[in-house]
Amino acid sequence: MLARESRIAADKDIKRILKLGKRFSCPECVLYFVPNTLGFPRVGFVVASGVSKRAVVRNRIKRQVREVVRLAIEQKLLTHSIDIIIMLRPAAAKIADDVRRDFFREFFERIGIIPKSKKHV
């Protein structure tokens, strides 16, 4: 589970990051991030009902992406002092469950949120 201090839940924080943050996107998600002064990374997830009408599907996708982030923080790969919002798009639901974690880990490596590595988690 992602530690409470590593989560962004406040609506005002989410709006601030969406307004001021740098944006990266792919068909499956949009990622916004902005530096923070806390000394550790914080992450928030947005999965709209447009991704899937079924909450079970939306929650599974969110759990899988959250696990990638949790492992990156736990393994000291994500050490930047930044706030990140990950907005998942409907295409994220079309990725097979067994491929989704690898896809998002590679996306985070590609945009430089976590360092590129030859050996994956």
Report a brief summary of the structure.
By secondary structure, the protein is of the alpha+beta class. It is 37% helix and 21% strand. The protein has one domain: Ribosomal Protein S5, domain 2, CATH 3.30.230.10.
Structure in words:
The longest helix is centred in the middle third of the chain and has 20 residues, at 55-74. Helix 2 links the parallel strand 3 (42-47) and strand 4 (82-88). The protein is 37% helix and 21% strand. It has 121 residues and is of the alpha+beta class. It has a 4-stranded mixed beta sheet with strand order 1-2-4-3, with helices on both faces. The mean pLDDT is 89. It has one domain (4-111): Ribosomal Protein S5, domain 2 (2-Layer Sandwich), CATH 3.30.230.10. Helix 2 (55-74) crosses helix 3 (97-111). It is globular and about 35 Å long. It has helices at 11-20, 55-74, 97-111; strands at 22-26, 29-35, 42-47, 82-88.
Distance between the termini: 16 Å
Radius of gyration: 14 Å
| Class from helix and strand fractions | alpha+beta
Poorly predicted residue ranges:
none
SS strand fraction: 15-25%
CATH architecture: 2-Layer Sandwich
Q: Strands of the largest sheet, in order across it?
A: 1-2-4-3
CATH fold field value: Ribosomal Protein S5, domain 2
**Total domain units:** 1
Mean pLDDT: 89
Major sheet details: 4 strands, mixed
* Total helical elements: 3
- Name the overall outline: globular
> Roughly how much helix do the residues carry, as a percent range?
25-40%
Order of helices and strands: HEEEHEH
Number of strands: 4
CATH class call: Alpha Beta
